Amino acid sequence: MAQRLTEVEIQAKAQELSGWQVEGSQLRLTRKFSDFIQAMEFVNKLVVPAETAGHHPDIEISYNKVNITLTTHDAGGLTQKDFDLAIVISEIS
């Protein structure tokens, strides 16, 4: 099981991420696209990285807006796995 990060570690790692917000024990990112098709294309690009990492984000889709939430449920909060996947997701356009 991944080890939960301390608040100091979380804040330091969050500073390195663009667009992500720490909300309680979660990392959240909202991406807005021109339409539903582009939003779905983005979501489909998340499948392989999430499967490869063995770590799956919670995804909400509302027409052209995609909300991604990361947390490590079995650790009860944020772990290095969340930040590693956030970095990969940040690079997907």
CATH-derived topology = Gyrase A, domain 2
The 3D shape can be described as globular
Gap between N and C termini, in Å? 30 Å
Number of domains: 1
Mean pLDDT rating: 96
Question: How much is the radius of gyration in Å?
Answer: 13 Å
Helix percent reads 25-40%
Across the major sheet, the strand order is 1-2-4-3
Total helical elements: 4
Percentage of β-strand residues: 15-25%
Quickly give the structural class: alpha+beta
Largest sheet: 4 strands, antiparallel
Q: From N to C, what is the helix and strand string?
A: HEEHHEEH
CATH superfamily: Transcriptional coactivator/pterin dehydratase
How many strand elements?
4
pLDDT below 50 for ≥5 consecutive residues: which ranges? none
Describe the structure.
With 93 residues, this protein is an alpha+beta fold. It has a single domain (7-90), classed as Transcriptional coactivator/pterin dehydratase (Gyrase A, domain 2). The chain has 4 helices and 4 strands; from the N terminus they run H-E-E-H-H-E-E-H. It has helices spanning 7-15, 36-45, 47-53, 80-90; strands spanning 21-23, 26-32, 58-62, 65-70. Strands 1-2-4-3 form a 4-stranded antiparallel beta sheet. Strand 3 (58-62) and strand 4 (65-70) form a beta hairpin. The longest helix is centred in the last third of the chain and has 11 residues, at 80-90. The model has no long low-confidence stretch (mean pLDDT 96).
